[in-house]
């Protein structure tokens, strides 16, 4: 990197801001099958924390959220969906594009929102879609538009952040194209893997709340790109086509409610090139563990016989105390392109699919661009416990650090309160952590631990989070070595069964951000924290007059709906 770029980077970092870098003197390099590291005047060597293109292009989408009766596995189910389809339409953009999504709520008795999972939303906290944090729900009959810039690239998904709606289908894939750390020929697009329930998740959600030990509902099936067969013989499989001798990019996303999956394509090895929105040093593997909300971009070479078809498998990890009735049969089909294509079911041989309640080994998850983590300005330790509920009809609720589970009102979001009072005076049911007194770009360490024999895929909005340590048993500071040099960084990370995870992030993105478990039943039971970051004046500046007025309009219409007390 040229000295002037280093100086600009240091200047931007010192101020706690990120800014596009000057690229006018670089030699342009076209992205292609033998140059996937290139991206015009940019490349894989550019750090998305500080730099991105400004294409001037706006990708616009219109989402109608409503009810539909669909049959993903051949069994009909009432679902909540976008534009009448499941999964919803793919949001596609290039690195540096502007994205604009208008969401109109046609649900008769529910509010809604859309969260763009893993998007940093640098200085666009208003587009995060987190109910009670950045907005009130969009009322039935109302519309709201989200606007943000694609400062990152890679694969992800969008989903409702209203109660349990995404478990009933309100989600879809998102692809932001950019450079890659290894070459490939054909982009096969997203592969969404999820558990599936024939009953509404709203009807099932009370089960873990009324059980004294929080036992989750039993999933009846799993889906790949919204399809699978069922025990009754109904349904169909998703299919992918490999071109012999070519390398295929596949974008894996776990959009489930409960399950950690182990993914593999029979007899084909994978090269992993990205985790969440972070490019990584490529590594090879036969199988890949994917927790809820996590994404991996993998490259698979079509180097096997074209004379048979192959299973792509998503196997739930039942050692995580999550049961799926179709654990052995959540599959898609891979066929080779041929003048005489193979028909019928695959006859391929599976890799060894170990049932382990774990995450990918941290030693494999090495960011392509390394960062060093500075000393902590604040360290918070949170213990996640399942305790008897108080003040409602449920048996148990999750508590994370605070005196109450996370169950805030929907009609008075955090940012509205902060802007109105120029302070953080939140009630205990927001489970708030006030970071507003910290200087910009201060380092915050979070230690989350739980002795419960359940994993927790944690997701922090608005940041790529550094995973400094992870282990089983209680966290003991003197016995725990923190990785401060090029640790894995991602937006969704796993708290192990009966274990701990140590996280770090910088206070470089003013707003209110949610940290929560992505198991639907757990966040519904209160497993979440509110992190308020940046001074109140900087948060007000992010919203400005236009977004502030829009937030208040949406909240006013939500108040008029009379649905505040509904789930």
Automatic annotation (TrEMBL):
<keyword id="KW-0325">Glycoprotein</keyword>
<keyword id="KW-0732">Signal</keyword>
<keyword id="KW-0186">Copper</keyword>
<feature type="domain" description="Plastocyanin-like">
    <location>
        <begin position="69"/>
        <end position="179"/>
    </location>
</feature>
<dbReference type="InterPro" id="IPR011706">
    <property type="entry name" value="Cu-oxidase_C"/>
</dbReference>
<dbReference type="InterPro" id="IPR045087">
    <property type="entry name" value="Cu-oxidase_fam"/>
</dbReference>
<keyword id="KW-0560">Oxidoreductase</keyword>
<dbReference type="InterPro" id="IPR001117">
    <property type="entry name" value="Cu-oxidase_2nd"/>
</dbReference>
<dbReference type="Pfam" id="PF00394">
    <property type="entry name" value="Cu-oxidase"/>
</dbReference>
<dbReference type="GO" id="GO:0005507">
    <property type="term" value="F:copper ion binding"/>
</dbReference>
<keyword id="KW-0479">Metal-binding</keyword>
<feature type="domain" description="Plastocyanin-like">
    <location>
        <begin position="190"/>
        <end position="314"/>
    </location>
</feature>
<feature type="domain" description="Plastocyanin-like">
    <location>
        <begin position="429"/>
        <end position="534"/>
    </location>
</feature>
<dbReference type="InterPro" id="IPR008972">
    <property type="entry name" value="Cupredoxin"/>
</dbReference>
<dbReference type="GO" id="GO:0016491">
    <property type="term" value="F:oxidoreductase activity"/>
</dbReference>
<protein>
    <submittedName>
        <fullName>Multicopper oxidase-domain-containing protein</fullName>
    </submittedName>
</protein>
<feature type="signal peptide">
    <location>
        <begin position="1"/>
        <end position="18"/>
    </location>
</feature>
<dbReference type="Pfam" id="PF07731">
    <property type="entry name" value="Cu-oxidase_2"/>
</dbReference>
<dbReference type="InterPro" id="IPR011707">
    <property type="entry name" value="Cu-oxidase-like_N"/>
</dbReference>
<comment type="similarity">
    <text>Belongs to the multicopper oxidase family.</text>
</comment>
<keyword id="KW-0677">Repeat</keyword>
<dbReference type="Pfam" id="PF07732">
    <property type="entry name" value="Cu-oxidase_3"/>
</dbReference>
């Amino acid at each position: 990197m040229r000295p002037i770029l280093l100086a600009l980077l240091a200047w931007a970092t010192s101020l706690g801001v990120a800014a596009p870098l000057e690229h006018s003197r670089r030699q342009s390099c076209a992205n292609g099958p033998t140059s996937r590291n290139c991206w015009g005047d940019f490349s894989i060597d550019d750090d998305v924390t500080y730099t991105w293109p400004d294409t001037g292009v706006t990708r616009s989408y219109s989402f109608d959220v409503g009810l539909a009766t669909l049959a993903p596995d051949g069994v009909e189910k009432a679902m909540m969906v976008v534009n009448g389809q499941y999964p919803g339409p793919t949001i596609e953009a290039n690195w540096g594009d502007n994205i604009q999504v208008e969401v109109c709520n046609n649900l008769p008795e529910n509010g809604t929102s859309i969260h763009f999972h893993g998007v940093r939303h640098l200085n666009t906290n208003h587009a995060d879609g987190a109910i009670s944090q950045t907005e009130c729900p969009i009322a039935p009959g109302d519309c709201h538009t989200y606007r943000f810039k694609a400062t990152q690239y890679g694969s992800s998904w969008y989903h409702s952040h209203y109660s349990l709606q995404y478990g009933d289908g309100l989600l879809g894939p998102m692809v932001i194209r950019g450079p890659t750390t290894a070459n490939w020929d054909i982009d096969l697009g997203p592969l969404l893997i999820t558990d599936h329930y024939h009953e509404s998740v709203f009807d099932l959600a009370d089960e873990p709340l009324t059980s004294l030990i929080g036992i989750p509902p039993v999933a009846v099936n799993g889906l790949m790109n919204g399809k699978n067969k069922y025990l009754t013989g109904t349904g169909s499989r998703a299919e992918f086509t490999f071109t012999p001798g070519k390398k295929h990019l596949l974008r894996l996303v776990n959009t489930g409610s409960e399950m950690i999956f182990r993914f593999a394509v029979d007899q084909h090895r994978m090269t992993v090139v990205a985790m969440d929105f972070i490019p990584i040093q490529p590594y090879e593997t036969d199988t890949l563990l994917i927790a809820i909300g996590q994404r991996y971009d993998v490259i698979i070479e079509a180097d096997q016989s074209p004379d048979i078809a192959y299973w792509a498998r998503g196997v739930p990890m039942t050692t995580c105390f999550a049961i799926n009735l179709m654990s052995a049969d959540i599959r898609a089909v891979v066929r080779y392109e041929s003048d005489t294509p193979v028909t019928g079911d695959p006859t391929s041989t599976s890799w060894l699919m170990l049932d382990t309640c774990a995450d990918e080994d941290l030693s494999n998850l090495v960011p392509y661009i390394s960062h060093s983590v500075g000393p902590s300005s604040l360290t918070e330790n949170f213990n996640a416990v399942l305790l008897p509920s108080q003040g409602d009809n449920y048996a148990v609720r999750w508590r994370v650090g605070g005196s109450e589970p996370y169950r805030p009102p929907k009609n008075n979001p955090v940012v509205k309160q902060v802007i109105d009072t120029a302070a953080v005076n939140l009630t205990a049911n927001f489970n708030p952590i006030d970071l507003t007194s910290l200087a910009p770009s201060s380092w915050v360490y979070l230690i989350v631990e739980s002795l419960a024999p359940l994993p927790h895929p944690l997701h922090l909005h608005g940041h790529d989070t550094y995973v400094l340590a992870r282990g089983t048993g209680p966290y003991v500071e003197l016995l725990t070595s923190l990785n401060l040099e090029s640790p894995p960084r991602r937006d969704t990370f796993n708290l192990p069964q009966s274990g701990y995870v140590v996280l770090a992030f910088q206070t470089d993105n003013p707003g209110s951000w949610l940290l929560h478990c992505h198991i639907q039943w757990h966040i519904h039971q209160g497993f979440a924290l509110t992190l308020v970051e940046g001074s109140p004046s900087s948060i007000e500046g992010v919203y400005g007059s236009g977004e502030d007025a829009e937030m208040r309009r949406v909240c006013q219409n939500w108040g008029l709906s009379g649905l505040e007390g509904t789930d």
